[in-house]
Give the backbone structure.
Amino acid sequence: MDESRATGVSLQELNRAGLEERPRAAQNDVSANASDSDIMQQSLLADSQVPDGGEAWVVISGCAVVTWWFIGTSYCWGILQAALVKEGVSSSSTLAFVGSLATACISFLGVLNARVIRKLGTRYSAMAGIFFLGLGEVLSGFSAMSIGGVIRDCGCCDGLCFMVVSVTPAQYFRAKRGIANGIVYAAGGLGGAVISFVMNALLDRVGVQWTFRIIGFATWGTGLPAAYLIKQRVPIPPSAVVDWRLFRDIRFVLLFAMGAIATFPLLVPPFFLPLFTASLGMSSGTGAGVVAAFNFSSALGRLLCGLCSDFVGPLNTLFISLLLSALSMLIIWPISTSLGPLIVFVIVNGMANGGFFSTMPTVVGNTFGSARVSVVMGMVVTGWAGGYLLGAPIAGFILNAAGGENNGITSYRPAIFYAGAMTIVAALIGLSIRLKTDKHLLKKL
């Protein structure tokens, strides 16, 4: 089974759990033979049985803590990367690949994670994901001075955690689904902000190896109880096929291409900001503070862009997010030779970065219907694998070719321009999707 089919099937079979209370025939109609009007009608039926509050907020709190750890630690990899480069473990490009590998597993292991969740349910799948996430960190504490050991223990269960928190809110929320998802994913940004300071303090006091171990123990101590709170409302039904007809829709083709390109630069700022600040002569504490500001801005951007989607439309919000991200990298970051302009870049880029993730599900649901949002998101997310895996390492290779991480801001500019150029291309594709949907730019879409 190819990766596009794998991830599409994995997300579809999970999210469709929220449709279990509908008649079985209605569920089966979401297929390659259903018309667009049928799918849009079924989308309304799919949203009719959710509680929209009450105990659901307890489940959301559990999802938020899980997201705190698996997104927060991923976005703080740049701090550990800088420490490992300083220790001479490997080059920045190789270590950026290690950090990207765990995130890329969200796409690569999609079908396997779906099978696990269908077998175990969301609660025990979340607990398994957190357990192995913490285990990878603890084991890295014993192998941190070996690049092979770090790769082995990098944590391939991010995808299991991602799948659980992605499908669970849809089982509990309809009218408040946007804010529920915003809270869940904003927790990842807040987690990254806090964890960055904790990591930097631990690196100064106990070194790289014990930093890995302590983060792993903390992941277990808080993540496992939170994962226990994540119970599924209805059983997860068998899977269905990917809707290959979507590739006949130019809007889907453009959306797929936009996501595939946009993910290449997304991890470049959080992974390389600590090295960038060090090249300017700033302390590791300043680097950690910059990463914390980026993660906090990302959390704020996820919430604000969710609200903006309700006022100006998700397609408009997505385009604005990508445009701001591109302009911040092409204009502000290259001239950030002091802390002031660097903080401006971090705030703007962090908010735009977070907005991409929080807006994409709304774009998919509004454009293609919520009854097949899992299919479309699955296919789109599969296209992100290349960017997740190779985007930051490519920036690392460009950095090394330009003189290395210790050669001042000049050596960073080619990598910065690479990231900015990729983002501006994605923004232009996003604008094309907007114009294909409706040519009136002031219309809410």
In short: Residues 3-14+43-437 form a domain with the Growth Hormone; Chain: A; fold (CATH 1.20.1250.20).
